[in-house]
Here is the input.
Amino acid sequence: MIKAQNISHSYDNDIALKNINFEIKKGEFVSIVGESGSGKSTLLSILSTLLNPTSGKVYFEDIDFKDIKDIDTFRQKNIGFVFQFHYLINYLTVKENIQIANENASKEEIEELLELLGIKNIIDKYPNEISGGQRQRAAIARALINNPKVIFADEPTGNLDSMNSQNVFEILKKLSEEGTTIIVATHDMSLASKIHRIVKVIDGQL
Here is the structure.
């Protein structure tokens, strides 16, 4: 589904990635692990279209990223993002935050998604009225509202306690079992070990 071919990336004279080659299949739950500064977040950014590599190619279902004319439309149709910091807007309700990603989503669709995530009761609450775990699950709902083929998650449990971290990973695992491809960058090896496949980045190399 996603193929990285001879990917390298540098920030000025700082080499972040060196000649990365690997492939991710549809429905896989892949964990990219590595120490801070190892290059894992750079790799995730490149695979998710947020960053163009210095050299090499990335393919999505055999389409070269460089051939995509309207990248915003492509992302909206195919990709969901979950970050360490949920980036919910405090003056909008959970429902309104989710509708930012899909303004055509009905309340019924959002309720169904929140019920799947176990937080249907917070639909009309504001981010400062709910817990950190609930906010992160709301961010997952926002990522899912367009039924993306792939979800990229960068340290999605970084600000959560162990129980909520486990809950978030179980939700992502369930989604992968239903056919969504999940790619997570994390430093938490205890959680990464429960995932289908681990890709370890050390000094910019796999």
Notes: The first strand starts at residue 2 and ends at 11.
